[in-house]
Write a structure and sequence with these properties.
3-stranded antiparallel sheet; about 20% strand; alpha+beta; two-stranded parallel sheet; about 130 residues
Length: about 130
């Protein structure tokens, strides 16, 4: 699914893995707000950007060994203006996983859980009620 704008605003930083090989962590650059968090204030983005945990670039290439959604009920949240994971990809993943409920937030960026906490919390509570 084309459309992700995160890689161009990611900063690669090499690190040594436990096995001695070199890995690459990806950090979001200071210019990454439009691609990652367009629907929060700039000051909130700067805090997020400064305190983030990077992710290993190798994660793009490693196949999943076991997907939890194959064995447990799952719920999904589509961020309609996500420029990290295109919304079409999110919808495809949720349909493939046969999720029980998918909520769409048309105006949300990738960090929908921060920009729309009530919608996120309501979905979590719905999932908890359905499985308890």
């Amino acid at each position: 699914f084309p459309g992700s704008e995160v890689l161009p605003v990611s900063v690669p930083v090499p690190y040594t893995k436990a096995d001695g090989t070199t890995g690459t962590d990806l950090y979001l650059s200071k210019d990454g707000q439009a691609a990652f968090a367009a629907d929060i204030p700039a000051a909130s983005f700067r805090l997020l950007q400064a305190t983030q945990r990077p992710f290993d670039a190798d994660s793009f290439g490693y196949p999943t060994q076991a997907a939890a959604w194959r064995t447990i009920p799952s719920w999904g949240l589509v961020a309609g203006r996500d420029k990290a994971i295109p919304p079409a990809c999110e919808r495809w993943m949720y349909s493939r996983a046969n999720f029980r409920k998918v909520v769409e937030v048309p105006t949300a960026s990738h960090i929908v859980m921060i920009s729309h906490p009530k919608i996120t919390a309501d979905l979590i509570e719905d999932a908890a009620r359905a499985t308890s």
